[in-house]
Amino acid sequence: MSEKKTLTTAAGIPVPDNQTSLTAGKRGPTLMQDHYLLEKLAHFNRERIPERVVHAKAAGAHGVLTVTHDITKYTRAKLFCEVGKKTEMFGRFSTVAGEKGSADTVRDVRGFALKFYTEEGNWDMVGNNTPTFFIRDAIKFPDFIHTQKRDPQTNAKRDFAQWDFWSQVPEALHQITILFSDRGIPRGIPYMNGYGSHTYSLINAKNERFWVKFHFKTQQGIQCMPPEEADRLAAENPDYHTVQIFEAIERGDFPKWTFSVQVMPETEAENYRWNPFDLTKVWPHADYPLIEVGEMELNRNPKNYFAEVEQSAFSPANVVPGISFSPCKMLQARIFSYADASRYRLGANFERLPINCPHAAKVQNTYQRDGAMRFDENGGGDPNYEPNTMGGPVADPQYAEPPLKISGDADRYEQKRGVDDDYVQPGNLFRLLGAEHQARLCKNIASSLGKVPKDLQEKMVTHFAKADPAYGEGVARALGLK
C-alpha cells in the first residue's frame, strides 16, 4: 500500500478537516476565517475556462511520428532529416459546431489538430478530416460559424441559417457534398483521415520553395456510421468516440495513420487549372500523386483531460524551418486568429503550459515577460529588450525564407477562376460515388434541407443540378419536389 498523503491547501498547508466547515458553535454561522473552505469555493467558481468557439468537444492522445521515406529534396525541416527519425506528438480530434457537452456522433466536420514537438520548436498541423472547407475567404468565417450555432432569439439549433447562407455561397458545395456523404459521420477517430486542407509550403536546403498539401490516411480503413445508429448513440452514449479511442489505446490497440504529401513546384502554381490556394478545391492525385513520408501512431492516453486536452492550444502559425505558409486567404487569417483565441481563452502565457511547451531545450528564448499565470522564472534578471549588450537572444538570418514573389494592386479579389468554378469538383465527387452512396447523400441532405422553406430548397437544388443534373434530381426527389 502506498504511503498516505496529507491533504493540503494550494499553498501547501496541511488541511485538518475536509468534511466539516468551521462554525461558531454546533449550529452557528460559518466563520470567514475558514480559509480552506473559501479557497475550495473560490477555485471551484473558476474551474471552467471559456470553451473554444469552435471545436469545443474533443478527445486527445499522445503519440509519435516516424519518418519512413526521404523528402529532404523538398524540405530542410529537421524532423524529416532522416528515415527512422521519431518525433513525439499530441493530437486533438474534435467536432466543430457543438458545445463541449454535445454528442460525438453528430453529422459534422471533425477537427484533426496535431502538435509535433520537434527539435526546432513546435510544428502544429491544424486541419480537419476533410481536404476542403465551406469558404475560401476568412472574412466570411464568423458569419458561417454563426449559422452553425444557436439562434440568437430562441437559443435553439436551426437548419434554416446554414442553408440560407450556403444558398448564397456556392463555393460551399464541395464541402456540403462531403459533409452529407457517408463520411459526414465517422465510426470513430481511428477510422477517418486527416488533412492539412490548406496549401502550405516546403523549403529545402537550397532555399527552393514547393507548395504542399498534408494528408494523414487512416491505416484502420475508412469506416462510417449510418445516421440511425449515430442518432441512437447521441442519446445513449454521447461520448462514444471519446471513450472508444481511450479504451483502444488503453488495451494497446494503437491507431495509426500514413502521412503523405502532395508537392507542387512553385512555378506551376500560376498556370494550374485550379487556384492552388483555394481551400474549397483539392489537387487531383492524377496531377500531384501522394508521396509517402511517415507513420503517425497514437499510443498514450492523457493522464488528465483538462491539463492535456482542454488546455492544449494549436496554431497554424507554428511552423518550423523548412515548413511555411502560402497565400491561402483562410490560412493567412488563421495564422492570427488561432493564437489570438488561445490568448483570450488561456492567457498570454498559454505556450508555456506543459502540453503546449516545446520539448526542445531552451527553445523559448523570447523577450516576453509577465502576464497572468507566468509560472516559471519569468526571464529572471535577463534583459527584456533587444538589442542589448548583455548576451540576450538575437535573430538568426540563416532561417530566413526565400522571397515570395507578389505583384498586383491592393484590392478585394474573388479567388475563383471561372463562372462554373465552384461546381466542377463537387460534380466530380458526386460522380465518384456509387449509386447507393449517391442515394444516401441525397437523403441525408433532404433530412436537413427539408426543414427549411420551399423556395430555399429549390434554390439549393439549382446549385446541386449545376454540379450534376443527377445530383439535383436526386435531392429534389428526396425532398418531394417536382
Instruction: Kindly provide the radius of gyration, computed on alpha-carbon positions and rounded to a whole number of angstroms.
Output: 25 Å
CATH architecture of one domain: Beta Barrel
- What would CATH call the homologous superfamily of one domain? Catalase core domain
Distance between the termini: 74 Å
User: Which ranges are low-confidence, i.e. pLDDT below 50, for 5 or more consecutive residues?
Assistant: none
Structural class: alpha+beta
Look up the CATH topology of one domain: Catalase HpII,  Chain A, domain 1
Q: Class of one domain in CATH?
A: Mainly Beta
Largest sheet: 10 strands, antiparallel
Q: Mean pLDDT, rounded to whole units? A: 94
Give the helices and strands as they follow along the chain. HEEEEHHHEEEHHEEHEHHHHH
Morphology call: globular
Q: Tally the helices: what do you get?
A: 12
Give an account of the 3D structure.
With 482 residues, the chain is an alpha+beta fold. Among the domains are: 58-137 and 186-360, Catalase HpII,  Chain A, domain 1 (Beta Barrel); 423-479, no CATH class. It has helices at residues 35-45, 141-148, 159-166, 173-179, 227-236, 240-250, 305-310, 329-346, 421-432, 435-449, 454-467, 469-479, and strands spanning 58-67, 86-95, 110-118, 121-128, 194-195, 200-203, 209-218, 256-265, 291-300, 323-324. Strands 1, 2, 3, 4, 5, 6, 7, 8, 9 and 10 form a ten-stranded antiparallel sheet that branches. Strand 3 (110-118) and strand 4 (121-128) form a beta hairpin. The protein is globular and about 80 Å long. The relative contact order is 0.13. The model has no long low-confidence stretch (mean pLDDT 94).
